[in-house]
Amino acid sequence: MFENLSYTFKYINMDDFHFLQRDVLKKLSLKPKLHFKDLLNDKVESEHMNYHIKKLVDMGYVNKEGYNYSLTEEGKKFVDLVDSESNNTEKMPKVSVVIFVLRKNKGVVEQLSCKRLKQPFYGKIGRLTGKVKFGETIETTAKRELKEETGLIAKSVRIFKIYRKMSTNKSGDFVQDAVFFLCALDGISGTFIEKTEFQENLWINRTDLNRSDLDFFNDYDFFEEYPKKELWFEQVEFSAEKGGY
Hints:
The chain is built from four helices and 14 strands. The protein is α+β, with helices and mostly antiparallel strands. It folds into two domains: 14-79, Winged helix-like DNA-binding domain superfamily/Winged helix DNA-binding domain (Arc Repressor Mutant, subunit A), CATH 1.10.10; 94-239, Nucleoside Triphosphate Pyrophosphohydrolase (Alpha-Beta Complex), CATH 3.90.79.10. Strands 8-4-11-10-14 form a five-stranded mixed beta sheet, covered by helices on one side. The chain is elongated and about 75 Å long.
């Protein structure tokens, strides 16, 4: 679906930069290149300014050619994350996959699920999820996460839903914001891993949803079969506190 990208991005928050370095990055984001004199700050000596520009060059964010300076590829990727008005890096939603695997056990449909053994949401039961790595396709992420977390291997992946989940605390502030690609995985093989350091893998059937000893996420859905309709989108807000955050 998407071409794999070969580079990786080292994330640094804008707050980690000196205010003079932030000013230089902002100026260079607005021009293809600038002369050293154009990067100077009237309130700071040129030697002091030169020190901070050199730091950006050493970090790989700024390229120097004679007396002219420009953003490197790494610098361009970084400023693309910076809000032009606040000059700070924007906090973005996390992008993850949700893995759906179904099987029949003695004629009963079971859905692959997991019990979280880490915070947040310790002890909650839901579907397997995993963060999409930079430059990784959704399909590749789904297959990788399935194998890493359960030992199972999937032949095919179909994205059937895009789901944005936003969670707020009791003050109404957002504490989580994630975009999930719901993926149906088929052609399953491999040796099942029942438990890892971070989760316990379970096969859940519909009657298990009524068990008092199982604490399911409030948006846990059970499927008797994979949805057949076209890809659709849903956006919801939850109280993180009520959800066990």
